[in-house]
Structure formats: C-alpha cells, structure tokens
Amino acid sequence: MTARTEIHADGTFNDQTGVGGWAAVVARSTSGRESGTSIYEMELRAMVEAVKMAEGPTTVISDYEWLVQNAQRGTPQATCRPLWDELFAAAAGKDVTFEWHKRDQSLGSRLAHPARTGHGPGAVTRSHEDSELSHPPAAGYAPS
Fold this sequence. Notes:
Strand order of the largest sheet: 5-4-1-2-3-6
CATH topology: Nucleotidyltransferase, domain 5
Helix content: 25-40%
Mean pLDDT: 78
Largest sheet: 6 strands, mixed
Shape: globular
Number of domains: 1
Distance between the termini: 53 Å
Low-confidence stretches: 130-144
Strand content: 25-35%
CATH architecture: 2-Layer Sandwich
Number of strands: 6
Structural class: alpha/beta
CATH class: Alpha Beta
CATH superfamily: Ribonuclease H-like superfamily/Ribonuclease H
C-alpha cells in the first residue's frame, strides 16, 4: 500500500487592504499573494495549488469547511468558477481527497500570513485584475 501524502492548504485575507495570501504545504511548499481578492479566493487558490503539487495518493487539508465539502462532492460553485474548474482539472486522474481540519497554527497558516504581506518564501504575486475570477474585491477596497 502506498502511503498517502497530506498537503495542508490555507488562505488569509485582510479586508481593509483587499490583499490576501495562500499557502499549500507538503515536503516542499508553495505560497503566493494577490491583490484585490477575498478569503474565499485565497482559500480556494491554496487548494488548487495543493492539488497541483500532489504526487501519488494525497489528502489536501483545509480549514475552510464549506470549500472542502464542495470539493469532496465535486460540486463547482458559481462564485470563482474558473478556480473551481482549475481545481477539478488539476485533480482529474489523481488520487486526491479533501479533508477539513479546524483552524489552527498549522504550517500552511504560518506560510499564508507572511505571503499576504509579501514576505513569504517562494511567494508568487498575482494581480486580481489579470484573473477571470468572479468574486469582487472586499467592500471598501480601492486599489492604489
């Protein structure tokens, strides 16, 4: 029997600046930041990046229960549909399961928060304006 890989995924968001961060952690890690985003997008982005990293049987762990439930069912949502499509395309043909764990100070969480501020290791920066995501920036957010 092949051992399953656990990948911890987490996202973070500052509703005053409209900047979020995400991280997916396994033996290797990836993290990044985006401006003009939401917690929903960052949590989902973290899950997408986790699945992309999956090699062999993998469990992606997230603290966003609703996202995990929809990922488990294979049910894409209208909000952020391009990200949902990216998640399910990345998971196609892979032995990937999704599991919810109550929020804690996991390694995923500890990497996502510095990524939001631009100080995370290996952080990838994206601009919300360049994406096709359907979720608008937080109320009161105005890009500078």
